[in-house]
TrEMBL record:
The keyword Transmembrane applies. It is a multi-pass membrane protein. Keywords: Cell membrane, Membrane, Transmembrane, Transmembrane helix. Residues 18-230, 455-640 form the MacB-like periplasmic core domain. This is Permease. The chain crosses the membrane at residues 265-290, 311-336, 361-388, 409-436, 677-699, 728-748, 760-780. Residues 272-388, 677-790 form the ABC3 transporter permease C-terminal domain. Belongs to the ABC-4 integral membrane protein family. The lineage of its organism: Bacteria, Pseudomonadati, Verrucomicrobiota, Opitutia, Opitutales. It is found in: Cell membrane. GO terms for cellular component: plasma membrane. InterPro entries: ABC3_permease_C (IPR003838), ADOP (IPR017800), MacB_PCD (IPR025857), Macrolide_Exporter_MacB (IPR050250).
């Protein structure tokens, strides 16, 4: 304890040094702690379900949903599942004084039971709720209960209006329940309605349900996966025309929910670890420079009988105290850092709420503090070990003893900081360039002149196709006639938001269940959609009402499908058929439009077919309205047009296309912002570290500089001397950093859009960033050296 008391008094005598060192470590510890909180909440321990390792998703392929008949066969034949159910997202209209669209799913009883968290009030969905004649029931979320029903404890057993039907509330889920579903896009699910399935109905080629299961005790995911694959092989033998290419599989819930975000969060955690390493090296450099003044003291202690262990403990005591101070301030930084991460992270509200400074995060902070104290304290301790009493007696009071070891360590630390800073700067340049490429690739869609909104026809009034068709046609006419609207249309799925697809046959292809046929995205659109969304017609014409035939329909395809199916030929008039045993129609190409990206901003455009909605008017569509003015001004008029047709229908997801693109880029934008922030912090720490080390070298060479100036050296010569020393360290660090940047490029290639090899411009940008930070750090010590008075310098002992 006496060593720590002595070190504490020494630190109090140098408030400037202590403040800089504590803040430097606080930045590193705080950033690492905040990022670990996000890592734990999003990747390491993202769920709080009972025995969450037993939860798994069941697919009919890599990300392929299940068909209704396949689900029944898997449920009947499998023995690995304690609970097994399927669900499909179906936004619902919640009626009342202020009708709204609520994120919900239709699910079988096994879905909620699989998660293992019972309702706070009431019950789960039960098998009796699936009966065709059963009364409508719903389970709602705690948040919806509080928001829309003021937390009324008597709500269970009462009816509310959902999709125009009085529905009994049978359960309310607890506040901490999160419905982890890969199809929910990070939204919070608020209602669970019964999914009423009948055996013997549905087509095995129609995949629309996500499977969720809880494994029986003792059953592992690989065991369940092997069983499901075996059942899948049986189904292939029994139904070769529909199941020949299905590869049934079971994957853990943890894998499915973290497979895309996990790699990016781990990458960011690696980046912030480098920031912490630079902070430690920075403080180690300052402690090394500071220890030069104490080597005489260490020599005296050794001469009086102090052991090497005591000297090391004394040298480490300052780094321990500085690390503790850095941890205390760093936790304050981490508290606000977590709030910032929760603000910019494109994840569900439950995942944002899970980011916090709980006991495990605090334990991580304690471990990081200890590691920081060790890393920052070892170099000064090594320098102290090299002190020789004989050398001290041969040197003057400035204490050059041990300087070679100290100088070598200082050079190594500074070069290491430059190397890490260069790697981070190169990474920031790569991600920033990637984001620019992504935005440019989707620039045509990003406009505030197009308004979009989603509408759901779920009530009994629209149960028949004719009623839905009439409503959509009337709405399309009303939207087109609105003042200030230049084009309006309806579409079943917006660009960048996913979609539906099917295998098709083109040219002379015939159905073969073992052949891999082309996969095409399918969208139903009204004739005005293409003009409203802004996609140009390249060839032929757009859709017309007469294209909705019975045996043959007219379709518009995109350039990707035309180039793939009919390269060098005129696609107009070509025929397309569904890839099944007995296709009930064929489609003739009447037009070709340019490509739009369907499954997010990073995916290449896929082959796409657009047909008239008369063939497949569903319950949900998106409205697309174009205006020469900012389209958000049309929100009230669009809502009035809908209300005029049905006052009980609420609009959902009202956004401009600029907002749609912005939302789709949220994940990439968050990564770019964080990497840029870490780079800026690292460059700042590098500048501080280089400044401190050069200042120390100037101090050590004060007499030499005085002699040079006395012999006629000009001020510029002295400045060049300091800059030359800094430039050598920067050059070595940049050369090493280029090697690290090349390795980084190949490590993150799959995470960076458009990155195929080393980017020379990113290397140039990183070099400039490090060089500018280094030049700023060299300038102040150079100015100080240039102002040295030769007479005073020569008098210095």
């Amino acid at each position: 304890m006496s060593d720590f008391r002595f070190a504490f008094r020494q630190l109090l005598k140098s408030p400037g040094f202590t403040t800089v060192a504590v803040l430097t470590l606080a930045i590193g510890i705080g950033s690492a702690t905040a990022m670990f909180s996000a890592l734990r909440a999003l990747v390491v321990e993202p769920f709080s379900y009972p025995n969450s390792a037993q939860l798994a998703h069941v697919w009919s392929g890599d990300g392929w949903p299940l068909s209704q008949p396949d689900y029944f066969d898997l449920a009947d034949r499998s023995t690995s599942f304690a609970e097994f159910g399927v669900y499909t997202p179906r936004p619902a209209n919640l009626g009342g004084d202020n009708p709204e669209v609520v994120t919900s799913v239709s699910a079988t009883p096994g879905v909620l039971r699989a998660f293992g968290i019972p309702p706070q009030l009431g019950r789960w969905l039960e098998p009796v709720d699936e009966d065709s004649g059963a009364a409508p029931v719903v389970v709602i979320s705690h948040r919806l209960w509080q928001r829309s029903f003021a937390g009324d404890p008597a709500l269970v057993g009462r009816t509310i209006r959902i999709n125009g039907t009085l529905t009994t509330v049978v359960g309310i889920m607890p506040a901490n329940f999160e419905f982890a579903a890969p199809w929910m896009r990070g939204d919070t699910c608020h209602m669970w309605l019964p999914l009423k399935l009948k055996r013997g109905e549905g087509h095995r080629g129609s995949h629309w349900m996500c499977g969720i299961a809880r494994l029986k005790p003792g059953v592992t995911v690989p065991t369940a996966d092997a069983e499901i694959k075996s059942i899948g092989a049986q189904l292939t033998q029994e139904y070769p025309n529909t199941n020949a290419q299905k590869k049934f599989l079971v994957r853990s819930l943890h894998f499915e929910m973290t497979r895309y975000i996990g790699s990016r969060v781990w990458m960011l955690f690696g980046a912030v670890s480098l920031v912490l390493l630079v902070a430690c090296a920075n403080v180690a450099s300052m402690l090394l420079a500071r220890s030069a003044k104490r080597q005489a003291e260490f020599g005296v202690r050794i001469a009086l009988g102090a052991s090497r262990r005591q000297i090391i403990r004394l040298a480490l005591s300052e780094s321990v105290l500085l690390s503790l101070g850095g941890a205390f301030v760093g936790l304050v930084f981490a508290f606000y850092g977590v709030k910032l991460l929760a603000l910019i992270a494109p994840v569900s509200e439950a995942r944002r709420a899970a980011m916090g400074l709980d006991l495990r995060v605090l334990a991580f902070a304690v471990g990081v503090t200890g590691l920081t104290a060790l890393i920052a304290g070892v170099p000064p301790a090594l320098a102290a070990l090299r002190i020789s009493v004989a050398d001290l007696l041969r040197t003057d009071s400035r204490g050059a003893a041990g300087s070679r070891t100290r100088h070598n360590l200082l050079r190594g630390l500074i070069i290491g900081q430059v190397t890490i800073a260069f790697v981070l700067a190169n990474g920031a340049a790569l991600f920033s360039a990637s984001y620019v490429k992504l935005f440019s690739a989707n620039r045509a869609l990003s406009t505030d002149r197009v308004l979009t909104a989603q509408l759901h026809l779920r009530s009994e009034r629209y149960s028949k196709r004719e009623a839905r068709t009439q409503f959509w046609e009337q709405l399309s006419e009303r939207l087109t006639a609105l003042p200030g609207v230049t084009a309006a249309g309806l579409v079943t799925q917006l660009p960048l938001q996913g979609g539906s697809n099917m295998n098709i046959l083109v040219n002379d292809e015939v159905f073969d269940p073992l052949a891999q046929r082309a996969l095409a995205e399918i969208r139903a659109v009204t004739p005005g959609y293409f003009a409203a969304i802004g996609v140009p017609l390249l060839h032929g014409r757009t859709l017309q009402p007469g294209d909705a035939g019975k045996d043959e329909i007219g379709v518009v395809v995109n350039r990707a499908l035309a180039d793939k199916s009919w390269p060098g030929k005129d696609p107009i008039g070509q025929l397309i058929r569904p890839s099944n045993e007995k296709p009930d129609y064929q489609a003739r190409v009447v037009g070709v439009v340019d490509n739009l990206r369907q499954w997010g901003p990073e995916t290449d455009p896929r082959p796409e077919i657009s047909w008239t909605p008369d063939r497949a008017w569903g319950n949900s569509v998106f409205l697309v309205v174009r205006s020469p003015q900012p389209a958000s001004q049309l929100t009230a008029a669009v809502r009035d047009a809908v209300q005029a047709l049905d006052p009980d229908l609420p609009l959902a997801q009202i956004r401009t296309m600029e907002g749609v693109v912005d939302e789709s880029l949220a994940g990439q934008r968050a990564v770019v912002q964080l990497v840029d922030f870490f780079m800026a912090v690292t460059l700042g720490l590098l500048a501080v570290g280089l400044y401190g080390t050069l200042s120390y070298h100037v101090l050590q060479r004060t007499r030499e500089i005085g002699v040079r100036m006395a012999m006629g050296a000009a001020t510029g010569d002295v400045v060049k001397l300091v800059f030359r020393q800094g430039s050598v360290w920067l050059t070595i660090g940049i050369v090493l950093g280029i090697g690290g940047a090349v390795a980084l490029t190949f490590a993150i290639r799959t995470l960076v859009y458009g990155l195929e090899s080393v980017d020379p411009m990113a290397l140039v940008w990183a070099t400039l960033a490090v060089a500018v930070a280094g030049a700023i750090a060299c300038w102040l010590p150079a100015r100080r050296a240039a102002r040295v008075d030769p007479i005073i310098a020569l008098r210095t002992d």
